[in-house]
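Re: weekly structure request thread

Next one in the queue (144 aa):
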Amino acid sequence: MTSLLILNGPNLNLLGTRQPQVYGSTTLADIEADCVAYGTELGVNITCTQSNHEGELVDTIHAAKGTFAGVILNAGAYTHTSIALMDAISSVELPVIELHLSNIHAREEFRHKSYIAPVSIGQICGFGAAGYRLSIDAMLGHLR
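Done, posted below.
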């Protein structure tokens, strides 16, 4: 059975209460439950995890090699700052989709630069919580 990792970065544990006008009112627990249920419908094992710590995210990406067929990564603010995450993605040679709830290209200019995009197979942003299902579909399409 195909297994995918959904990895969420800093502050995503606050979804539902953090700037709902930007990120929506759906909680991370709701998103994760929906992803797991959607995976079950599709015959795909979905594992979700979240960390506010850059090093833990790097370690999780390293551990994904040989365990998961692909990674869906919402790196949050680390998208715009973390060469370490970029290097981790490059080193594990797994397909990664960069995901964002908001449209980072319609926000502050500093959010327009992504260190994740050059080492990802694609980017999905601006669709809120629905972006997670879109990312699962996109990853499965890529893997086929």
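The two ends are 13 Å apart (CA to CA). The domain at 3-143 is CATH 3.40.50.9100 (Rossmann fold).
Next request, please.
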